[in-house]
Amino acid sequence: MKQLDPSARIFVAGHRGLVGTAIVRRLEAEGFSNLLTAGREELDLRDQAAVDRWFAQQRPEFVFLVAGTVGGIMANSTRPAEFIYDNMMIHATVVQAAHLTGVERLLYLGSSCIYPRHCPQPIREEYLLTGPLEPTNESYAIAKIAGIKLCQAYRRQYGCDFISAMPTNLYGPNDNFDLTSSHVLPALIRKFHDAKELSARTGEPAQVTVWGTGSPCREFLHVDDLADACLFLMRHYQRDEHVNVGTGEDLSIRELAELIRSIVAPQARILFDSDKPDGMPRKLLDVSRLHELGWRHSIDLKQGIRQTYEWFIAQHAPAKVGAAV
Ligand code: GFB
User: 160-198, pLDDT tens digit by residue?
Assistant: First the structure.
């Protein structure tokens, strides 16, 4: 069997996203020289015929399936049709084309929202499909569950070596900082940064509105740790059960807001808008399967937020680099 060595032909599906950019960065740093990518304008991953043609021409040997329509709680609840259609189609076309062209191994990336809303915590892999889903992201979760089942079905019927990883909430460079569609961590970085800037201009006290009650808990993994885990699993994991990927530690949204405030804008006041949804009360992953395989995360949350804030400033307010961090 072909190994994942630097000459392997590797397709990173979704190479412009938060996860895809981190995987490409990591593969390039390790000297992989045969990376295959395709932008949206070149290849619509929802189009089976186009995806089949692309695979037949490019002949990837390994595939990181990290493409999809993603977003935070508001985007998920207001655009459920896009979340279910785009993701189900993308997963199905890529898995089918990978099977037809004899891809050696494919890693499919899901999400921790696949688990029931009222799961025992921490969440073990076997709790999948044991209860109703969280309504704010049901469409996305159904598509992600279908992706796991696709990989398992192709393994069972055709012997394909397709594996699945379920990451917890992610953050890092190249995240989406748009306040209507982003996840909480980049949203709060932007809100505290903007509040500090506004206060400096107007002399008014800085204040930030956090959605919901602040009581839900979330676990956060830096995307460079996720990329490391994806390579680890691609190299060492060949079973059909999906694997949780996280840190095994969580904090409340209130604590997260206080942590980001301490890094970005220590003077700012925090308000809560309880008209906005809380979503899942808690979704802490049990990561013992991954630990037993021999992988652990290495980027501490505070350090990761600092680094992400530096990236944000360099991208969004380059003139102020150094001054604000
Ligand atoms: O990160 P987030 O949008 O998604 O929200 P989920 C997490 C929590 O942070 C929720 C609160 O309780 C939000 O109400 N929050 C507070 C905020 N302030 C903000 C803010 O300014 N922006 C945002 N976005 N949230 C998503 C799912 O769930 O997680 C997806 O919708 C996916 O399907 C993803 O699984 C990883 O963690 O609630």
Answer: 999 999 999 999 999 999 999 999 999 999 999 999 999
Q: Which residues line ligand 1 (CB under 6 A)?
A: 72-74, 76, 111, 113, 136-137, 140, 169, 182-184, 187-188, 210-212, 216, 218, 253, 276-280
pLDDT tens figures, 135-144? 999 999 999 9
52-79 in b/e form (b: 16+ CB < 10 A) is eebbeeeebbbbbbbbbbbbbbbbbbeb
Task: CATH 3.40.50.720 in the chain: give the residue spans.
Answer: 10-174+219-249+282-305
**pLDDT for the residue 281:** 97
| Contact partners, residue 3, CB within 8 Å, separation at least 6 | none
Amino acid at 41: E
How far apart are the CA of 182 and the centre of ligand 1, in A? 8
Mark whether 140 is an active-site residue: yes
Options 3.40.50.720, 3.20.20.150, 2.60.40.1930, 3.30.1490.20; CATH for 10-174+219-249+282-305 is: 3.40.50.720
* CB-based contacts of 299, cutoff 8 Å, min separation 6: 222, 224, 225, 307
Which regions of the chain are under pLDDT 70? 1, 317-325
Q: How many CB atoms within 10 Å of residue 321?
A: 11
The model's pTM is: 0.96
pLDDT above 90 as % of the chain: 96
Q: Which of 140, 154, 171, 309 is catalytic?
A: 140
CA 54 – CA 38 distance, rounded (Å) = 9
Angle at 189 between CA 136 and CA 70, to 5 degrees: 35
Residue whose C-alpha is closest to residue 160's, from 110, 112, 95, 212: 95
